[in-house]
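PROTEIN DATA CARD
Card holder: acyl-CoA oxidase
Chain length: 661
Origin: Pseudonocardia autotrophica
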Amino acid sequence: MTPTGTLPAPDRIPADALRDVVDGRWADVRRETRDQLATAGVLADPDASSEEYRARITEALKILTASGRPHSGFAPSVGGRGDVGGVVTAFAMLAYGDLSLLVKAGVQWGLFGGAVQVLGTEGHHERYLRRIVDGELLGCFAMTETGHGSDVQHLHTTATYDRASGEFVVHTPYPQARKEYIGNAARDGRMAVVFAQLVTDAGTHGVHAFLVPIRDSDGNPAAGVTIGDDGRKAGLNGVDNGRLSFERVRIPRENLLNRFADVAEDGTYSSPIENETARFFTMLGTLVRGRISVAGGAGGATQKALALAVRFGERRRQFSNPSTGEEIAVLDYLAHQRKLLPALATTFALHFTQESLVSRMHDIQAPGAAPVGAREQRTLEQSAAGIKAIATWHATRTIQTCREACGGAGYLEENLLPALKADTDVFTTFEGDNTVLLQLLAKELLSDYGRTIRRGNPLQIAPLLGRQLAGVLSERTGLASATRRLPLRGLDLSDRERRRALMRVRRDDTLAAAIRSLAPAMRTGNDEFTVFNANQDLLLTSARAHVDTLVEESFTAALSRIDDDGVRSLLERVYDLHVLDVIDRERAWYLETGRLTAAESRSIRPLVNELCGELQPYARTLVDAFGIPENLLACPMLDDEAWAPAPGSPAEPVTDQVETG
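Structure generated from the sequence above:
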């Protein structure tokens, strides 16, 4: 392996120093949130009826409001502190408790309040935002329709301006256009941010956001509003998801959230962004906080699942050691280590990536932040889309692995893993379907390539064109091995720089391959949709490679900031395991392209096994570094009394002796 610092014994790793590294920029927020979670009853209750559960979560929302934590992410003018990064960090930690509360809070302050904050203007802020922040006005984020989920640009709900009355008329033209799966709609919401096609006498101007009251002061549906209940779900049953339909509901002209476009009294439409598509994506880009928050929540749930599984793996013993006769802890088995430790390594990698992403978002969005260029904003949006997809897929896969690693105990509700599994399943779908998000990222990467070519900077263009030429030559001559392995020759696979090079070359080459395959779409007369559709697999591969490299770079940056030698040595090995696991997962690509020889490919398995064995004694130290409050991990399968050693030889069950007379 790459030379690294000496790894101290597990009990010599300074717990506070490791926790400080994990806590990062918002360590104070994490400490405060831990203290709050440690005294709150915020665990899921799967036995409660839907109404009981929803009522309990609504009460918990009030307690959360009283803590002042939700306020911190908003501007001081509405009672906040402008700590955008801090509130997203605290939000993610709610995943240690009841994920229904996390989602309910996300809908209220992240989606509903966030939309009013970033899409509205001063009048909306003065009239609504303080009440939203204080929890007095509960609301919804009504974007998805029964017939249109991912294709938001072509929603069918309409908001037609009536010049005679100075009002918008919000209408659901047919059942497929009803708003669907809307959090806070079935029970508690009083107002919704409704996304609809804005129509004036001059025509349709694309999707815009409108504030629409959905209930009166008594809690009854507002005139023209039909509210349905989505009922029981696979999880998150403390959240009141519902359906909304509008029958020519009239709202004041001022209820258009008009940061990016407005309609004058005479019906004249205006926008500082002339292109409808550009305006639409600018509007959606301001909502990036939701995707970052979902990725953080998925990370918190994954950390909890691993903490449960690692602790169980230390306690659970199966089969005897022939040398000693003692039963062996399941975490001592390599197969069990291979289940949990690479997943734990990737969880750390994604945690540091999330920290970096939250910091960038805070520096761009916090009140008083210096303006940034379009490129910086685009990069944030790209990263948020990619990390949301990868983090939530990782959560789904890892929580299932942890459930299996805990055997039958992991299947019991009382041991917490089933609720984690059920509640996080939908994370791969809401705030953007993961596959669609990766396609969006890939298209943005292609656009970046096009912008680079158009700018004509030789220093940027030369590597891109060189990569394209190498790809064409290798495809036409079959010299892939010779042309592609040359830059990496002479570097040992166990060397960190070699592994970094392998990550980056996959990112660059997969994008280059996608560009070559999509070139026909740019030619006159070709069907652009057909060409793109036929190459979706390449687009998704390039997007995944881009995110993998982003995660590796974020982990590397985090390592460079660690002062404590022991902590750095431990996390360097965690980094090594994560990167090798990614290369192992993508071995087919590396072999097909000649980036790895067969012998190098075979060397990965023993390297991973070696790292698993080296990190096994530190598994508990690593999961404890997340700082999950003990009351949120307490469950029967981790009860110390239940794991008291059995009398006698473990290989021979104790039997009662029966006297015979």
